[in-house]
Design goal:
Layout lengths: L5 H15 L7 E4 L6 H11 L10 E5 L4 E4 L9 E12 H4 L9 H12 L12 E2 L5 E4 L6 E11 L13 E5 L3 E5 L2 E4 L3 E6 L5 E5 L13 E2 L14 E3 L3 E8 L9 E6 L4
Length: 270
Amino acid sequence: MNYVDLWPLLQQDILGVLQADAFLGTRQGVLVEPGDLDSVLAQKLAQAIGVGRDGKNGVGFLVPPIERAEDENPGLPGGPLKLTIAIQWVENVVLNQSATGTHLPIRSYAAHTEKLLKLYTPVGLAQNLVPARPVISEFTDATQKQLRMGRVEFTAVEADFRPFRRVNRPQISVSGAGVSPASPNSYLLASPATVTVTAPDAVTIYFTTDGSHPYEGNAAAQLYNGAGVPPAGPGAPILIHQPCLFRARAFAPGKAGSDTAAVNFFNDEG
């Protein structure tokens, strides 16, 4: 297969398996995106522990992105990647023990998750998911003592044995009469800044100004005008009027998306 960003495909696949299970599928499952702000994570957490298809609340699960990717054989770089994947169960103890709660601890759900997924081979992988930690870790958040977390961690190996190829990180250029660098990749914004993005080996470039992760599936991401016909050279500049975190990422068929380039804009007030 052509290399694409594996994490969203794998996330959707695992989420679908868990939601199709008669036991786990009654609970809310929520995808966590790279770059999610704390406020967004809080909303997703509230969604996860909300009312499920069984009419009960207090327990749900989050499917984060791939946590680690490393060569399966350290002595053979460029081979298949060994991926670390986790499912995070969350319980609001007060809700879960109330009249409308499930009255089942997250350990029950996490244990069922482990049994289900270790027999499953997700799309794009060469073998079943292997539990990295057979003991489910369970802890209570220090700041929100009513929340209890249960984590199930797995490892998996890519099915594609071709060398991993990735688009180079895009370059961001900043100019403007009222713009002055404060530190590397950080600019003081006294008047609008002109931003130009270049990525010679890209076909498309996506950018965001809300701090979220730029990619096609993010509704907040915009397609940069300078991309579309390789090589993606300088295109129509972007004007930045307000303080923000500008992030850009480049993509091309047959390769994984680039690392994210970022520039921070701020003013004297912030």
